[in-house]
Every structure is written in structure tokens, then in C-alpha cells.
Inverse folding.
């Protein structure tokens, strides 16, 4: 009885490891070719599977795409209660060290605004959560009003827009746009911390 359980556990672990390997390969292929240019066949080839073998893990390209996005969010995950403005600056520093992942995320984000794109629902939900998290970060830092008089809820979309907009500018001209430095400049613009 225990032997069968052990085999099932081992198989599940190997399956999870294989799934993670496929997601890493998918991220690389999407970074190289964009979502539209990335095929299941190219991902399968990269991990030594047939396309049919890959379909065992991800029945559609869309399912794989959403799993890649969710996995990327897991890598960056931090409990909501631990986010602070200075840690956001550290996240920007961290992103500056991994252009491939930022490029993939940005390309998929750009494509997701089109009607019926498979990642549209993911990004819509993600941005709703991110805006709420940023409002909480700003409330922790400043209270109910920023020095400008804006509420955290009014300032949160601006904070998110700056982070994402800097990523696009940096990806297009990394030698001209100091993404971490510009983000710290933006934090300065927000104003001095409330008492």
C-alpha cells in the first residue's frame, strides 16, 4: 500500500518538475519570438518533448501562456503586508537585472489589450490587485493623503503606470534610461513621508 503511494508521490514530483521546466523554456521562447511567434512545437523541442507530449502538461498554447504569467508572479511574490515603497524600488532594481523576463511580460501585456487575447483576463485581474496593493503601500507610507493631497487610491494607478512605463522605455533604450534611478526620482516627486 505505501509503495503505491510512494510511486504516486514520485510521479507527481517529476510531473511538477517537468511542468516547471516547460514554463522556463516557454518564457525563453516567448522572450525570443513574442507570444504570437512562440509555438508549442518550439517549446516542446527546447525541453526534448514532442508537441503531443507537451499537450499532456498544457492542452493549449493559451493555457501555457497563463501558466507562464502566473509562474512569473510567483517568483516575484511577497506577502501584501510586506510591500513598502523602498521595497518597490528594490523590485525595480531586480527587474533591471533580468531583461528577458521583463521583455516577455511587457510584450504579453502589450498584446493582451487586443480583443479576446488569452492573457487579457489575467492582466485585467492582476492590475486590479496591483492597484489595490499599491494603494495599501501608499496608505502605509503617507496615511489617507499624500503631500500632494491625492488619496492613495487616486495615486496608485499613477505609481503602477510609472513602473510599467519605465520598463518599456528601458527595454527600448537601456543605455539612455536608468530605470531604477528614474523610479527613485518618481518616489522623490511623491513627496516627503507623512508624519
Amino acid at each position: 500500500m505505501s509503495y503505491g503511494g510512494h510511486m504516486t508521490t514520485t510521479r507527481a514530483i517529476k510531473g511538477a518538475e517537468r511542468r516547471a521546466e516547460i514554463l522556463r523554456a516557454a518564457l525563453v521562447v516567448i522572450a525570443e519570438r513574442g507570444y504570437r511567434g512562440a509555438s508549442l512545437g518550439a517549446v516542446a523541442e527546447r525541453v526534448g518533448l514532442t508537441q503531443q507530449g507537451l499537450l499532456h502538461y498544457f492542452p493549449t498554447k493559451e493555457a501555457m501562456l497563463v501558466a507562464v504569467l502566473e509562474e512569473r508572479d510567483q517568483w516575484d511574490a511577497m506577502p501584501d503586508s510586506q510591500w513598502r515603497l523602498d521595497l518597490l524600488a528594490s523590485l525595480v532594481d531586480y527587474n533591471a537585472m533580468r531583461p528577458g523576463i521583463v521583455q516577455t511580460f511587457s510584450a504579453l501585456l502589450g498584446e493582451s489589450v487586443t480583443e479576446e487575447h488569452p492573457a487579457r483576463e489575467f492582466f485585467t485581474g492582476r492590475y486590479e490587485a496591483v492597484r489595490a496593493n499599491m494603494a495599501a503601500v501608499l496608505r502605509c507610507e503617507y496615511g489617507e493623503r499624500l503631500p500632494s493631497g491625492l488619496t492613495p487610491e487616486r495615486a496608485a494607478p499613477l505609481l503602477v503606470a510609472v513602473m510599467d512605463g519605465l520598463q518599456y522605455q528601458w527595454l527600448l533604450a537601456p543605455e539612455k534610461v536608468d530605470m531604477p534611478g528614474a523610479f527613485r526620482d518618481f518616489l522623490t516627486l511623491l513627496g516627503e513621508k507623512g508624519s
Remarks:
- The chain has a mean pLDDT of 86.
